């Protein structure tokens, strides 16, 4: 992000100096405007803006309202791999495996419908089964166990695919050029930004707090080598220790 430069006259110089000190603190951060938007949107209950820049909110009824803030510090970025494409492929493979199993199970069930009904009725009434139906029961039990196993594999694959999905999609959202993030792999960059904030508590008291915000940014790479860089997203906020 680029800050615009304004030429001011001599009479405005003291005001400009004050604004620079207040805004930049210890050198400033390129993501400071994002943080200011976050606190303003939280204060006004602007959920539309918040949905585009954060996965959390600074709730006025619980956390209070940030009236002013200054930049304190920022950590180095840490990156972790995003296996979006490979995990989406694993999920689709698990779904296909489950569907193939379901088809085979249905064939067995249709071919043995009457015997399976007798087995289920006997299980519900603790009735003793004939040797033939006992064999059906053993086979049907295997089918039921495998049903649970395949369903678990699909669920685990879905969970893995959706890990970090919310922040990735917010970071990469572009109404003019939407993309399917599961067609890419890449990295997720994470850093923390600390600000000193004047907070008006829900009880009306004005207090000074150090707030630590976690920011994350998606960086994707396609098969053609095309690099796509998303926006920074605020994903966590906590109160830090006083400096």
Q: How would you sum up this structure, described in words?
A:
The chain is an alpha+beta fold and 243 residues long. The protein has two domains: 29-83 and 165-240, no CATH class; 85-162. 47% of the residues lie in helices and 25% in strands. The chain has seven helices and five strands. It has helices spanning 13-24, 32-44, 47-53, 84-111, 113-125, 131-162, 165-172, and strands at residues 65-74, 78-82, 185-200, 206-221, 227-240. Strands 1, 2, 3, 4 and 5 form a five-stranded antiparallel β-sheet that branches. A hairpin with a 5-residue loop joins strand 4 (206-221) and strand 5 (227-240). The model is unreliable at 1-26 (pLDDT under 50).
């Amino acid at each position: 992000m680029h800050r615009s430069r304004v030429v001011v006259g001599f009479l405005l110089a003291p005001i400009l100096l004050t604004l620079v000190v207040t805004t930049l603190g210890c050198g400033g951060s390129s993501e400071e405007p994002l943080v200011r938007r976050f606190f303003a949107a939280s204060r006004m209950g602007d959920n539309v803006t918040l949905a585009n820049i954060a996965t959390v909110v600074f709730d006025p009824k619980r956390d209070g309202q940030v009236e002013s803030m200054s930049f304190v510090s920022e950590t180095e970025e840490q990156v972790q791999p995003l296996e979006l494409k490979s995990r989406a492929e694993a999920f689709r493979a698990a779904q296909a495996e489950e569907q193939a199993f379901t088809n085979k199970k249905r064939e067995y069930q249709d071919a043995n419908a009457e015997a399976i009904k007798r087995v289920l009725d006997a299980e519900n009434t603790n009735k003793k089964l004939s040797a033939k139906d006992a064999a059906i029961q053993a086979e049907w039990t295997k089918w039921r166990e495998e049903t649970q196993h395949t369903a678990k594999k699909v669920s685990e694959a879905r969970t893995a695919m959706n890990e970090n999905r919310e922040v990735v999609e917010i970071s990469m959202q572009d109404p003019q050029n939407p993309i399917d993030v599961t067609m890419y792999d890449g990295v997720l960059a994470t850093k923390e930004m600390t600000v000193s904030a004047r907070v008006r508590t829900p009880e009306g008291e004005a207090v000074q707090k150090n707030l630590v915000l976690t920011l994350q940014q998606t960086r994707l790479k396609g098969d053609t080598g095309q690099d796509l860089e998303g926006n920074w997203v605020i994903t966590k906020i906590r109160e830090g220790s006083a400096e």
